Structures are given as C-alpha cells and as structure tokens.
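Researcher: Next entry in the queue.
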Amino acid sequence: MAILVAYIGEICDLKWLWKLTQASRSPYDLPASMSYFMDPLEVITQYVGCKLNPKHSKLDSLELRVV
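Model: Structure for this entry, 67 residues:
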C-alpha cells in the first residue's frame, strides 16, 4: 500500500503527477498500490489535537515555508 502526501497537493501536485505519468512514452507511473492521498494542511486545520492547528499554535500562517 502507498500513500501520496502533498501539501495542498490536490490543487497542483496531483494534476502535475497525473500528466507526467500519462504522457506517451513516460518512464513514470503511479503505483497501483497507491490507495490514499493525504494533505498535511487538511490535517493541521481540521484535527484539533494537532499542535500546529491555529487554535494551539502561534504561527503567522500555515504556509509550508512557515510550518
């Protein structure tokens, strides 16, 4: 089983990876065992127990460079 983890990946990374792996003669492919996708930003903002959740942290923002 494989999990793809990408920060705000649905907006950019997944589309780019899909195009890259579907191009003709591409040496790349997405593993068939990849069953899940996780966006750490979603976890940070929705999981209340996360120390980076805005309710618990004093971060200026949740941008990747800040986190």
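Model: The mean pLDDT is 80.
Researcher: Noted, moving on.
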